[in-house]
Amino acid sequence: MQWLHLGIAIIFEIAVALSAGRAEGFTNRRWTAATLLSGAAATYFLSLALLTFNVGVGYAIWTSVAGVGITLLGALLFGQRLNWRKALGIVVIIGGVVGLQLSGAA
Amino acid sequence: MSNSAPNPARSWAMLLLAGGFEVGYALAVGGSEGFTRLTWSLVAVVFFLLTLWALSVALRTIDVGIGYAVWAGIGAVGAALLSPVVFNETLTAFQAMWLAVIIAGVVWLKLADRPQEAPPAAASGSRELQGANV
To answer: Which InterPro entries does the UniProt entry name for this protein (chain B) (predicted)?
Structure first.
């Protein structure tokens, strides 16, 4: 259940990133509202996940996997190149999450 | 980006502040226990707005990739170090090592997202996309 909550929180955190990027320094009202709403949803589901996860562990997985999602979406939707450096970062993060899970922290 | 650069020291102070707010946010979200505890919940909301504000001010002058790397690094390291203190949680050495791997990965990933290699003409375009990285 905590993984489901964390997954939903990660999806909303990616939405925060996408909408904040369009909020033009929070001068665009619609995207600013989208940023705040998705931020509120991300925060709520993160708090549910943290009922089970250690705070430091859950937070790190949340922010880093959201980062992976943002980079992958950038490549898929916005035509950003996925160079070896980004790929390495993604592999390291996923390896770390798997390692944490196997070590019983997550 | 450098057209309206005021004071770099101030921007960096703002970025460090944003990282500190993010640590407060992480701890308060954890302490809110699913937003069932009022005080922690209110503190979480305040830190959420503060971190968003401070980060957006800092990123007016600091390179987005570097700014995110520093901000995310401070937030994750701070939360990892302080949450055992605040919440009486335990972490084995192995778990701490994997946590360090994840945090190093996210800092690396944010740094790799810099549009540095792009030619000047393309740089403004990728800058815009970088904005989608908040």
So the answer is: EmrE-like, Small_drug/metabolite_transptr, Small_multidrug_res
